[in-house]
Design brief:
alpha/beta, 7-stranded mixed β-sheet, Rossmann fold, single chain, 10 helices
Length: 287
């Protein structure tokens, strides 16, 4: 990504509605399909983006075994494309987290935030041993990689049997615009396209849905209008920020946060047929 985008993300990830809404969705799905550490653990305390309580423990998730040990305490999680580390702290509620990124810029931001388990590597060249990870998260990461299927195969190789891949990304190639260029996206996806690639890589898809679907009727014409304007304005990439850097009033930010975050609960009951982004939970088969 452009340096300006890294700086924006670092500044806005705690407060901007887009970051807060997607984080609530990610946490809800991790609670459901992975399960938190049995004990308090680093980062286990819920924050303002935590989903509503009352979720059932995930099968095979946190919880003491018959021997009194907690398997989730030793769970190994890789956050692929961790960027400035916005999801590393929340992920610590689920196991031991290793942040990986292809650029040193993002990893230096992570190190400055006292995240110490960091590795520089590309998604298409896995940096861990076979069957060494319990979960890989790729939040808005695989769209940056030319060989996305190859990257998924590497993730499959590194995951233990039964291990989870939780991935998200931008939806619909016809919406590809300046936002995608400054964040160095190779492509955007449909859910069908992304899940087909995941199955080609050997995964069983557990859950797949579009997200940011409640706001999509407003986002769609806004993005198309912006694309039309950019055809004539031709903004340059150098020093360019992303759309999240556009300032909006506090009350509007809180309203949008509430709308986007509410999808976390709705996704427990259905998968949305359209949206501005998507989410997928997939599993490496146990045998």
């Amino acid at each position: 990504m452009e340096d300006a985008v890294y700086r924006e993300f670092l500044e806005l990830e705690k407060t901007h509605w887009w970051f807060r809404g997607r984080r609530a969705i990610f946490i809800s799905l991790l609670d459901r399909y992975l399960g938190r550490r049995a004990g308090p653990g680093p980062g286990a305390a819920g924050g303002t983006d935590a989903p509503p309580s009352g979720s059932a423990p995930a099968p095979g998730g946190s919880g003491a075994s018959a021997t009194g040990t907690d398997p989730s305490a030793e769970r190994q999680i890789m956050d692929l494309g961790c960027g400035v580390g916005g999801m590393i702290e929340p992920l610590q509620a689920y196991g031991n987290v290793i942040g990986t990124d292809v650029t040193l810029v993002g990893l230096l931001h992570c190190a400055a935030r006292d995240f110490t388990k960091l590795v520089a590597c590309t998604g298409s060249e896995g940096c861990f041993a076979d069957q060494s990870l319990d979960c890989v998260t790729a939040f808005d990461a695989l769209e940056h990689i030319e060989d996305d299927v190859g990257a998924m195969r590497e993730i499959h190789r590194m995951l233990k049997p039964g291990g989870l891949l939780v991935a998200s990304g931008p939806a619909y190639q016809f919406l590809y615009a300046q936002q995608d260029r400054v964040t160095h996206h190779v492509r955007r996806y449909t859910v069908k396209e992304f899940t087909t690639k995941a199955r080609r890589a050997g995964f069983e898809v557990v859950k797949a849905s579009y997200i940011n679907f409640l706001l999509f009727p407003a986002i769609l014409p806004a993005v198309l209008l912006l694309k039309f304007w950019q055809r004539f304005a031709k903004p340059g990439d150098d020093g360019a920020g992303s759309n999240v850097g556009i300032s909006i009033p506090h009350f509007a930010n809180e309203m949008l946060t509430g709308i986007f975050s509410s999808e976390a609960r709705l996704l427990r009951w259905f998968s949305a047929p359209a949206g501005h982004s998507f989410i997928m939970v997939a599993r490496r088969p146990a045998s």
